[in-house]
TrEMBL record:
Pfam families: 2-Hacid_dh, 2-Hacid_dh_C. Transmembrane segments: none annotated. The keyword Oxidoreductase applies. Belongs to the D-isomer specific 2-hydroxyacid dehydrogenase family. It comes from the Eukaryota. Keywords: Oxidoreductase. Residues 113-307 form the D-isomer specific 2-hydroxyacid dehydrogenase NAD-binding domain. The keyword Oxidoreductase applies. This is Glyoxylate reductase. It comes from Hydnum rufescens UP504.
Length: 340
C-alpha cells in the first residue's frame, strides 16, 4: 500500500508541522515564507489525499481538483475566509473543506479597534508628519490633527455582518462607553433575536438591532464591515452606500477587500463625503502600489492584511489547519469544517 501524500503550500511553522509529522504520510512541503508557485502546486498535487493551503493560493478550483485527481479527500486552509476556494467544486467531489475560525477572532477584533482609532484620529497623517520631519515646524496647535471622538455620547457603531469577530469588536467598543449598535446580516444565522436580547442585557446596551443597509449607512458614526468575501457581498459598500454616510463617519474594513468598492471609497474620501477609512484589506491586494487611489488619500489608513498577525494567532491557525487535515483523513469530525 502506498503512503498517502499531503501537499503543504507554505512554511506552516514547527508546531503545525509536528502535528502532521505524527502521522505516516508523504509530506510534500513548499517550506518558504512566500507562496508556492502555481506550477509547483500543479506538479505536486496529482495523487494527493490532502492539501493544506493559504488564502493566497488562488484559485483552488475545479481545474486544480481535476489535476489532483480522485484521491483528494480534504482541502484545509489556514484562514477563516474561503473565497479563494470553489466550495461547490469541492462538494461535488466529496472533498471536505477545513478552515480556522475562532482562533483569530480576538486578534482581528483588536486590529479593528486600532483601525477605527487610527482613522478617526488622523493616525496616518500624524505619523507621516513626524516621519517627514515636520514636527518642529508644526508645534502643538489647538485644532491641528483633530478628528471625531469615538467615545462621545450617542456614538453609534454599525456592523455589516454580525458574526464572531463583530461581536468581539462590540465587546471592546463597549469599554469606550459606546452603547448603541446597529447591524445588517444576511444568510446563515441572520435570525438572532434572542441572542440580541442576551447581548443587550449582558453589555447593558441602549440599542442593538438589525437594520437595512440604508439605515445603517445613514445612522452610524463608525461602520465596520465584517462579512465573508465572494459574490454575495461584492461591493456592499458602494457609491450609493457611501453617499448616505455621515460626513464625520469612519469606515473600517478588516474582512475582504471585495466588500468595498475602492474607487467609490477613494472618491468619497477625496470629496469628503465621509471622514476617513481604516482598511486591512483592499480589492486586488496585494497589488496596491503608491499610485493606488486609496493610498493617495491621506485619510485612508491602510494595512497589508495583518488582522490576524500575532504570533499566538498565526500558530493557532496553522495548528488548526493541520489538525483539520489529519482528522478529515482519519474520518473524524474536523475542528472547523465548512458545510453547505
Ligand atoms: C482569514 O483568515 O481569512 C483572514 O483574512 C486572515 O487573517
Amino acid at each position: 500500500m502506498s503512503i498517502p501524500k499531503v501537499v503543504v503550500t507554505y512554511n506552516i511553522g514547527e508546531e503545525a508541522l509536528a502535528i502532521l509529522k505524527k502521522h505516516p504520510m508523504e509530506l510534500v512541503l513548499w517550506s518558504e515564507d512566500r507562496n508556492a508557485p502555481r506550477e509547483w502546486l500543479v506538479e505536486n498535487i496529482p495523487g494527493a489525499v490532502g492539501l493544506l493551503c493559504m488564502l493566497t493560493d488562488k484559485p483552488i478550483d475545479g481545474a486544480l481538483l481535476d489535476i489532483a485527481g480522485p484521491n483528494l479527500q480534504v482541502v484545509s486552509t489556514v484562514s477563516v475566509g474561503y473565497d479563494h476556494i470553489d466550495f461547490q467544486a469541492l462538494s461535488q467531489r466529496n472533498i471536505k473543506l477545513g478552515h480556522t475560525p475562532d482562533v483569530l477572532t480576538e486578534a482581528v477584533a483588536d486590529i479593528t479597534v486600532m483601525l477605527a482609532l487610527m482613522a478617526s484620529r488622523n493616525g496616518r497623517i500624524a505619523v507621516e508628519a513626524v516621519e517627514a520631519g515636520k514636527w518642529p515646524s508644526t508645534p502643538w496647535s489647538l485644532f491641528a490633527f483633530c478628528g471625531p471622538q469615538i467615545s462621545s455620547p450617542g456614538y453609534t457603531v454599525g456592523f455589516v455582518g454580525f458574526g464572531r469577530i463583530a461581536q468581539a469588536t462590540l465587546r471592546r467598543l463597549r469599554s469606550f462607553g459606546i452603547d448603541r449598535f446597529l447591524y445588517n446580516n444576511t444568510g446563515r444565522g441572520s435570525s438572532r433575536e434572542s441572542a440580541d436580547v442576551d447581548l443587550r442585557q449582558q453589555f447593558n446596551l441602549k440599542e442593538l438591532r438589525r437594520v437595512e443597509l440604508d439605515e445603517l449607512a445613514a445612522e452610524c458614526d463608525l461602520i465596520i464591515t465584517l462579512t465573508p468575501g465572494g459574490a454575495l457581498t461584492h461591493h456592499l459598500v458602494n457609491e450609493s452606500f457611501l453617499r448616505k454616510m455621515k460626513k464625520t463617519a469612519i469606515l473600517v474594513n478588516p474582512s475582504r477587500g471585495t466588500v468595498v468598492d475602492s474607487n467609490a471609497l477613494a472618491l468619497a474620501l477625496k470629496e469628503s463625503w465621509i471622514w476617513a477609512a481604516g482598511l486591512d484589506v483592499v480589492e486586488g491586494e496585494p497589488n496596491v502600489g503608491l499610485d493606488h487611489p486609496l493610498v493617495q488619500q491621506p485619510r485612508a489608513v491602510l494595512l497589508p492584511h495583518i488582522g490576524s498577525a500575532t504570533f499566538e494567532t498565526r500558530i493557532a491557525m496553522a495548528c488548526t489547519a493541520a489538525e483539520n487535515l489529519i482528522r478529515a483523513l482519519a474520518g473524524e469530525p474536523l475542528l472547523a469544517e465548512v458545510k453547505q
